[in-house]
Specification:
heterodimer, A: 224 residues, alpha/beta, six-stranded mixed beta sheet, four-stranded antiparallel beta sheet, 10 strands, 35% helix, globular, B: 303 residues, alpha+beta, three-stranded antiparallel beta sheet, 9 helices, extended
Amino acid sequence: MSEPVLQTTDLRRSFTQGSVTIDVLRGVNLAIRAGEAVALLGPSGSGKSTLLQAIGLLEGGFEGSIRIAGKEASTLDDNGRTALRRDALGFVYQFHHLLPDFDAIENVVLPLVIHGTEPAEARVRAAELLTRLGLGQRLDHRPAKLSGGEQQRVAVARALANRPPLVLADEPTGNLDEHTADVVFAEFMDLVRSEGSAALVATHNERIAAKMDRVLRLHEGILE
Amino acid sequence: MRRLTPTQIGLLVAAVLILIFAIWIATSTRQANPDRLPDGNNTATRPENPQQTCAAQSTYDLIKRELFRRAAVLRGSDQAAYDKLSAYAVVRIDRPLLASEDEGTGAIGCTGSLTLDLPPGVAVVGGRRTLAADIGYTLQGAADGNGQVLTLTNADAIVTPLATLARTGGQALDPLAPEPQSTDPLAPAVELPPAPEGELLGAPRATTPPRAGEGPSFDCANARTGGERAVCSDAGLAALDRQMVAQYRQAVSSVDRRTRAELERSRNRFLSFRDQCPSDDCIADTYRGRMREIRDIVDEGGR
């Protein structure tokens, strides 16, 4: 059996403020197989976002092991973490975080070119993704000219552009109305599956979680 | 006690002088950490008003190096090329403000609207040579007391596109690698764009002086800088100058106030680049880049 695309072992994270120490993650063990879609459910404050920050190699200060696409991340330096993030991960946040001065297609082209794709080829790939998401007529629109749902679709295309082994999503439709959220999430999952990526989606929405292959519940820093 | 002879006294004085000279050499050539501000900006000698540190040119230079360093790390290659290009780029910060000050650690937090202007011959995705973002930056004295440590926040809007930096060549962006043959990123190793049809841009430039009536847009009797003198000495460069100035005047007369201000501001940078050029080819490339820049600014203003 092939190695999981993500595996954490006894992952811990504490925050200290003054004399008070709060254990946000208290030994998280999880494994996600290639192509598997997993929901991370939990109420606000349960540690979902902290766990995604750790797995996304966005912050330090963690204890334990994180293996992503076969590489142990906990021993990497800053440059190594940046490279692993670039090569193995895609991100979708609650807020799109698109670059406001770049139009829709350029926002998707950026990670492709950084990853080494020729610019012309990158434009073709970006246009294809955005067209699949219904934005074929919006390629040259800047984020400010797009609706919330359209902005999030661009963010989805950007996250999947390099066909990363693992996509991390933190409340990816939490900023949208219910109908738009359902539509965008369905498109997101279609793309994840068709591109062969695995996904770990943090949400407090049971309805969204039910559409995934597996549901993990995080409670007070421990997976139940 | 035996008295010293004049020769012995002379030797003693010479030895003392050599010792003093050796100590001076050892201290003055100490290798500085390139990621730190010069000693004049150490915590101990920092301007009493931290606001001045937020707006200091040395701070801007530190920020610029960090932006290029991060972009090279994100790209995963071409660190040397990024280091070279960093020296030719220009960072400016509008409204640099002191946001916080930690009395205990001496750290100061600043915010500002940063604009990074790239040199001619290179661009990021979309052909852009100007990147902007509202950033935060924190400066804190290094633990060993030598220089300051910089932390940048909200810089992804610059770092991410900067990681796609490429030489300009026609419509496509070519990867920075392989390394340029020249160490000067503005030198002819930079690939020049093809000339638009019917224009003088791509024609081999004459090395003969301009004939009467074919001079540049300005009076060569007043030429002062190296760039101006070069343009006055070469018919091809003079033609490029006339063409660029005609485009500039037409652009300035047809855009809104904000775009006009951007055109005027970027003009000074262009002149600075042109006057630093080591060769006529570099000057020609700088003019071509300026014409693309004028077009981009006008297009940008029209969106």
